[in-house]
Amino acid sequence: MEWETVIGLEIHAQLATRSKIFSGASTAFGAAPNTQACAVDLGLPGVLPVLNREVVRMATKFGLAINATVAERSVFARKNYFYPDLPKGYQISQYELPVVANGHIDIELEDGSTKRIGVTRAHLEEDAGKSLHEDFHGMTGIDLNRAGTPLLEIVSEPDMRSAKEAVAYMKRIHELVRYIEICDGNMQEGSFRCDANVSVRPKGQKEFGTRAELKNINSFRFVEKAIDYEVERQIALIESGGKVVQETRLYDPDRDETRSMRAKEEANDYRYFPDPDLLPLVIEPSFIEAVRATLPELPEAKRQRFVSEYELSPYDAGFLTASRELADYYEAVVKAVGAEPKLCANWVMGDLSANLNRDGKEIGGSPVSSAMLAGMIKRITDNTISGKIAKEVFEAMWNGEGDADAVIEKKGLKQITDSGAIEKIIDDILAANPDNVAAYRSGKDKLFGFFVGQAMKATQGKANPQQLNELLKKKLSG
Amino acid sequence: MHNKSLTELSTGLIAGQFSSEELTRHFLDRIDRLDGQLNSFITVTAEQALTQARQADTRRNRGEAGPLTGIPLVQKDIFCTNGVRTSCGSKMLYNFIAPYDATVVARCNDAGMVMLGKANMDEFAMGSSNETSFYGPVKNPWDTAAVPGGSSGGSAAAVAARLTPAATGTDTGGSIRQPAALCGISGIKPTYGRVSRYGMIAFASSLDQAGPMARSAEDCALLLGAMAGFDPRDSTSVEREVPDYRATLGNGLKGLKIGLPKEYFGAGLDPAVGQAVQAAIDEYRKLGAEVVDISLPNTGLAVPTYYVVAPAECSSNLSRMDGVRFGYRCENPKDLEDLYKRSRGEGFGAEVKRRIMIGTYALSAGYYDAYYLKAQQMRHLISDDFRRAFEQVDVIMGPTSPTVAFNAGEKTDDPVAMYLADVYTIAANLAGLPGMSIPAGFVNNRPVGLQIIGNYFDEARLLNVAHQYQLATDWHQRMPHGFE
Amino acid sequence: MALERKDVENIAHLARLSISEADIPEYARNLSNILALVEQMSVVDTNGVSPMAHPLEASQRLREDTVTEADQRGHFQAIAPAVEAGLYLVPKVIE
């Protein structure tokens, strides 16, 4: 039996506002418990919600970035259920009329082709608080700081057919929300969360199989593993005569398996109805156009431009546009250098990125600014230093020893480009190594490297490699 | 002193005839002596009141007083009052010391008013007789065997018995107008959105409105002016200027078109009440008004519609009462389910539980379309009835309640019989229109109320129409025996 | 629509209300009567009538994204039934 996997993802992105969606309390991460839960967030008797403008702007931005329809009129609805981290006993969300609908995003498959994944809807809602299960003498502690933080719930069509596709989609959405600056995408802090709806069906069957919802997956790696495990589990279950139950399952990364969740098992009747404390959200076309004007160049467009404008390979373009900050850094370097986009790319992708990784830094925290790197690259292109020496200069800049010129000056790293001087050095080396000269002249070409090495040693690496090679060849050929 | 109207008290304070402290002591003394017969207070805030009174007197001496500075007031126990218990008539909030002030309370405080205490009310504003309160029923000062009406029964009784010159109330299906009628006082439910709901414990969010209750339209005008206005903390609050409601009280009524819906004078109306109301309408004819027969065809469906919308919204609004962050918590909960079920089961009274269950049912899977959605459609039809009527008339009049005050215990066995008492008042809430009740006579020594319904934001007209009647009659000046 | 014992139990559970065994029949009776009252709506033809969620024709007002609330934990938790280390306590929740 050939099986087909069907996956849909629900992503909750915390919107990076200063205050909550319906109150003026702070959304800053890491505060002491319940110090950022105001009366409205606590759901005290008598309090009322008022909508944050920035949240509307961010949702609109997202809708435009995925080519979706931004609803002229959307409605907030109450989702009613009882849980201690939900103070009002209902979550303010959107149900029948969400703010964004019918968008799409393109992912790149392993074979290089593109696949379009539909985004059914994106809607606004408030986050719940947190339960702390450490033992308080048999009790659970509730922290409501997070209650009321704005979320954008992004729901895909069930268009993905493998765990890899799901990860690719998740990565694209992750990149996009960071690019348009509506979410910091920090999965460890919980500002980007993913649930996967997974089902299987015999290949060719039109009806969907029963799906399970996987929760608690907070990394790209875990999404892939969780889905893979679940697909195998479902297939094995069906093939052994069982039936997949529609349920919520948690992914356990330590055991690499999914488990059925207890307590939330009964089918929840959420009794959705329009929230009478809020009026319909109307978004005028003028508002949408004003937001459209603030859209940055989106990742896909940027990638394509890098390939055409800088003549980079798709791989290089992909690497350099992984984040908006990195792409901006790279372009600043190229602009300052005024040329050599490939050389600049090599430096950014090579030494710079290696050092960032090694020291656990993001591009924003790089000790070598784009101006500094550009300055160094200019010294390569104007022959002041060789590419090899540049590595030394780079490390020195990274360690705070000044900019390229200062380091070159201080360490005396200027290239030797005076032919006369180089010739003299070559003459000295040839004179000191007559046997090798003879051996080379009689056909041992490999010895060329020996002479190059000697010359570099004698000049502490500062001889201009091209000139050295030329002159050495000339002299060796007699 | 307690027989003076709010307006007279205001004038008296300005003229220096008495201080606010004297005035406050006078009322606190009356409450102490007389409220035992009525049970109209859940909390009396004597110390705080005297402090506020002294502050008011100081403000007056500095020349910084306004028309309401130093005037005593009772707040219905549905409004959050910072540092003072706010029980909403329920065991669920028996120990809820509100940590903030409702906007209505803040505005009254800013105007310099003196809070005597928190008025008794039907539990969570659900009731028409003030018999569902956890703190005991309230009695009608006109006849203590009778109910004062509800849910603002405590506010109405306290004003009628002159234990306070004025009180705040709230009205979701008639809870200001009906007790005002049954207790022979004046009360107005403003247009939805006119007064802030922030800090007013929610019953049915799309129907609730706060309003003043006092012994005359003139007094209501003064208090409404302080209560009304835009509040950025309430998304349903309207950004619309508050007129000076007193400025137009004196307008003549010549040419005023009064609509009498035939549905309000049919079966179910006590004939004696009907007669008293017709006499009131005759007074209006004498004042120059023209009376027009109109029809509000969907009147009969107002009560069924309300008893879907209000319970549905309240079932959700009351979910936050769960014993976790405030209020009543059951003893030794064995697990989370038990905590919720017993805290709520023990904390809520029977009427509240009934309404929560009806509301839950109406919203549940499979029933939403037939009940909740249908009710919202009915609301539209009911509003359209009024829209059409107001194309022909300026105001609509009729009895506030089909009967005068009934005896305590008479309707408590049959919730539906109690619900039908709201037949004339409910439609205005469903449409969001302003409505007022003023005294218009007596039947067997129990007061009769005349209801006046106006178009959106036409409170000034309602108060003017009511005031002119009160200049020509003296029903509103009658006093119940035993509270002189 | 007459409600039976099972219906009352289901609704009470959804609403997290404890109802004693003895009281269930009375609740069933009263709730059924209320539903009979409410069902009077069904005779009216509301085809094509748009639902009225609000009396106001207005749309939602937006507030500026600024932090306006300070930490009042002590004040708010003074009225809480069970608090420890700044957290609200509930019977242990098993996930």
Folded structure, characterized:
The complex is a heterotrimer of chains A (478), B (484) and C (95). Chain A has 478 residues and is α+β, with helices and mostly antiparallel strands. Chain A folds into three domains: 10-184 and 246-288, no CATH class; 299-411, no CATH class; 419-476, Orthogonal Bundle (Arc Repressor Mutant, subunit A), CATH 1.10.10. Chain A is built from 16 helices and 17 strands. In chain A, strands 3-7-8-11-1-12-13-14-15 form a nine-stranded mixed β-sheet. Chain A has a three-stranded antiparallel β-sheet with strand order 6-5-16, with no helix packed on it. Chain A is elongated and about 95 Å long. The N and C termini of chain A lie far apart (75 Å). The mean pLDDT of chain A is 92. In chain B, the strands form two sheets. Chain B has an eight-stranded mixed β-sheet. A three-stranded mixed β-sheet of chain B has the order 1-3-2. Chain B is globular, with a radius of gyration of 21 Å. The model of chain B has no long low-confidence stretch (mean pLDDT 96). Chain B has 484 residues and is of the alpha/beta class. In chain B, strand 10 (435-443) and strand 11 form a beta hairpin. Chain B has two domains: 6-256 and 393-477, Alpha-Beta Complex (Amidase signature (AS) enzymes); 302-374, no CATH class. Helix content of chain B is 37%, strand content 13%. By secondary structure, chain C is an alpha+beta fold. Chain C is built from three helices and three strands; from the N terminus they run H-H-E-H-E-E. Chain C has helices spanning 5-14, 24-38, 73-77; strands at 62-63, 83-84, 87-91. Chain C has a two-stranded antiparallel ribbon with strand order 2-3. The longest helix of chain C has 15 residues, at 24-38. Chain C is flat. The two termini of chain C are 38 Å apart. Classes of the chains: A alpha+beta (478), B alpha/beta (484), C alpha+beta (95). At the B-C interface, helix 9, helix 10, helix 11, helix 12 and helix 13 of B face helix 1, helix 2 and strand 3 of C. Strand 10 (139-143) of chain A pairs antiparallel with strand 3 (87-91) of chain C.
